[in-house]
Amino acid sequence: MMPLLDVIRRYWMQVSAFTLVTITALSLWPLATLPDVPGSDKLHHYLAYAALMFPAALRRPRNWLWIAMFFFTWSGAIELIQPYVNRYGEWLDLAANAAGLFSGMLLVLLVNRIASVPTIKQRFPRL
After folding, report:
1. Domain containing 89: what range?
2. What is the per-residue pLDDT for 63?
């Protein structure tokens, strides 16, 4: 798991940009009907924005809270644009996006806490 976290930390900007472009494209692509996928619409918003925030929070660049505000503002702009591309903009979607961003930050705290706990071999090297 640690090598994956190291890759995400190293390429956080590329991963975040790819995720943001993907979310934007999927959110603004005109559809006649929404696809039938498991889970609720709000869950999809929550997971997408948690995944968006995770790399930046993990790397924690100097202005990472400004990045979180940018992501929140961007998600609000998407919600405002959606009615013009045959989609539905909803305030609850924006709330799910914000909850996802916050959860992405909390998940990083949890991952960092778990990663900092020494293993048995590190604690007792003679075993």
Report:
1. 2-30+37-117
2. 87
